[in-house]
From TrEMBL:
Lineage: Bacteria, Pseudomonadati, Pseudomonadota, Betaproteobacteria, Burkholderiales
Protein name per the record: Serine/threonine protein kinase
UniProt domain Protein kinase: residue ranges: 13-283
Record-linked PROSITE patterns: PROTEIN_KINASE_DOM, PROTEIN_KINASE_ST
Pfam families reported for this sequence: Pkinase, Usp
Alphabetized UniProt keyword annotations: ATP-binding, Kinase, Nucleotide-binding, Serine/threonine-protein kinase, Transferase
Gene3D superfamilies in UniProt: HUPs, Phosphorylase Kinase, domain 1, Transferase(Phosphotransferase) domain 1
Organism: Comamonas terrigena
Length: 483
């Protein structure tokens, strides 16, 4: 349909201006046409999205509108525009939503100079956290690209355009009505090419493409126009980013190339784990990916091609289930007034939790007082003190079987231990926290809010409180002494 003129009224909304004319839809700034509606409205600026439906437009325009009309209203949180209203598909299809102010990621790609490494890490973290929020709601975006990622002034990301998305609780209309792979070729994951939809790791691949472009200025697989060119990413590897930008640190190349693995199982299992590595670059586990300066050898490409030819892509579990099976698991290890029994009990609880969650990421955390690092003594300097505590955490974790689990060690400084633990959990998308239970009686806990009680009350994740107990060997030794 043709563009609507300013002043046109649609179901009580007045068109102000066309702010975007895309290949699949027009976006208009709108307002309520009547004062009474405006007074009782949501209180934020609005836009109206109307799909293009001319003779030359494909059927996917209407199908994708139906998908967005189905999915957008059920999405919540700060990483999606708030839904307001929708129009009748048979009369005039439209969606009215919140107008979010900011710059799309394309803004940074259009700059003459490449963004700094710090900026890239911040942008990547924002994208990963937004995708994680979507995945927690059992939705995969499946069309993440620079124009669909909006960065607000506070640095957080808002994801736009859910016309190609897949929600586990609703029919996948695109898979039912269109037999070809749909998406934006430059950012499409290999499994999407063969028709697999609903795997959250497809969004991680797209974030990897955008990170690659941010640091190098180039697309890792180009922008293929044919299905044959598109399928090449199922076995081809991109030029290593450090070959194009020699000053790029190894940890950033490790992150980007892990996101771009052709097999989904080799990528980050969740967007939360991707965000975690971008926030803690000094503890990114490095593999051979980080060392690459040249593309794959002919033999390696041939091996990948053989694997891709025989690969059977299967439907993935629910995104929320994938997140639950591979959470960021945090353990709070006290550093003072702590018994061997407590340290042993925490380690046993962590071992059990990791044992039933293959692929979980472990963050070992301790909180020290800021005054502890204020001494002028060189041996008690902040760097030395943090190193000592980190070494102690590594020693504590040494008996754990960490095969298949990423692990990192963190020393926080705070006067309020409970608040520091809760904030760390919030900022790092922690899915499960383990800490020791209070050692004094219930009577005292009724009078004083202990650290474990406050954390259990305020934490944004599941909290396991561990009651201390001694190993059997120690108990036997104790019994012999008493006898």
């Amino acid at each position: 349909m043709k563009k609507l003129a300013p002043g046109t009224e649609v179901d009580g909304f007045r068109i102000l201006d066309c702010i975007h004319a895309g290949g699949m839809a027009h976006i208009y700034a709108v307002e309520y046409a009547h004062a009474r509606q405006a007074a009782s409205g949501p209180g934020f600026p609005l836009v109206m999205k109307i799909p293009r439906m001319t003779e030359g437009d494909g059927a996917e325009n209407i199908v994708s509108f139906e998908v967005e009309l189905q999915i957008h209203p059920v999405l919540t949180g700060p990483h999606v525009p708030r839904f307001v209203a929708a129009g009748d598909l048979l009369r005039l299809p439209y969606i009215v939503m919140e107008q979010v102010h900011g710059h799309t990621l394309q803004h940074w790609l259009d700059q003459a100079e490449r963004p700094s490494l710090h900026q890239v890490a911040q942008l990547g973290t924002a994208m990963a956290q937004a995708a994680h929020s979507l995945h927690q709601q059992n939705c995969c975006h499946l069309d993440l690209k620079p124009g669909n990622v909006l960065i607000k002034e506070d640095g957080s990301a808002v994801l736009l355009d859910f016309g190609l998305s897949c929600h586990a609780h609703y029919p996948d209309l695109l898979a039912e009505e269109l037999r070809k792979a749909v998406g934006s070729p430059a950012w499409m994951a290999p499994e999407q090419i063969v028709g697999v939809r609903g795997d959250l790791r497809s969004d991680i691949f797209a974030i990897g493409v955008m990170l690659y472009e941010l640091v190098t200025g180039e697309l890792p697989f180009g922008n293929p126009a044919t299905s044959g060119g598109l399928r090449q990413r199922m076995w081809m590897a991109p030029e290593p980013p450090r070959a194009l930008r020699p000053d790029l640190p190894e940890w950033m190349q490790e992150i980007i190339l892990r996101c771009l693995e052709p097999e989904a199982a080799q990528r980050y299992p969740t967007a939360a784990q991707l965000a975690f590595d971008l926030q803690h670059p000094e503890q990114v586990p490095l593999t051979e990916r980080s060392q690459r300066l040249h593309g794959l050898s002919l033999a390696a490409k041939l091996r990948r091609w053989v694997r891709a030819a025989g690969m059977e892509y299967r439907p993935s579990p629910l995104p929320s289930e994938q997140i639950g099976e591979r959470p960021i698991l945090m353990v709070a290890v006290p550093h003072q007034d702590v018994t061997d029994a407590t340290l042993y009990s925490l380690r046993q609880a962590v071992a059990r939790s990791l044992g039933i969650r293959p692929g979980a990421r472990l963050a070992v955390v301790t909180v020290i007082s800021p005054s502890a690092s204020s001494s002028t003594d060189a041996q008690r300097s902040e760097t030395t003190l943090h190193r000592q505590h980190r070494s102690r955490l590594k020693q504590w974790a040494q008996p754990l079987d960490l095969h298949g689990h990423g692990v990192s060690y963190h020393v926080l400084e705070a006067t309020d231990v409970a608040q520091a633990l809760v904030r760390y959990a919030e900022g790092n998308n922690v899915g499960l926290m383990i800490l020791g239970a209070a050692t004094h009686g219930l009577q005292m806990q009724r009078l004083v809010a202990t650290v474990p009680m406050r954390v259990a009350r305020d934490a944004p994740c599941t909290v396991i409180l561990v009651k201390q107990h001694l190993p059997f060997a120690a108990l036997n030794a104790h019994d012999n002494v008493v006898a």
